User: Fold this.
Amino acid sequence: MSSLFEGVNLVTKDQSPASPPTVTTALLFSSSWCPDCTPFVARLGAMYEEINEDEKKFEVVFVSSDRDAGSMATYMHAKHPGWLAVSYNDPNRDEFKRKFGCCAGSEAATVGVSPRKYGIPALIIMKPDGTVIKESGVKEVEGFQGGEELPESWV
Assistant:
């Protein structure tokens, strides 16, 4: 089975190499400088920790729109639970933005995202092989009322 993350340099919060996810995965398009991202990332983090409390049911892979690797690392340390990320210098970071049409408006032309479907924050929900389950999972995160189950539309 081919993985969406084959050949992608995934890292942990401390920038150590990470293995591709094997559970339902949310690709998070976000940045440290985005005012709308801060409350969304906090909600997603709380949801992530609650759902994964007893067993790992879903993973988040961060696709940064930060302006440099240092800002991305600082953001991950300050605001992210144990999520994975596409390494800042991996060209797949921009490839994911093009593939899913998700990025900050200020980087759309530089990255080559056209058309842009979603600004940031954006959340694409998928199976471990990369099959998209839900194109935008933002509403489910904003409406999460607690519990240990994934939202129905993410299964």
In short: The helical segments are 37-51, 69-79, 92-100, 108-111, 138-142. The chain is about 30% helix and 15% strand.
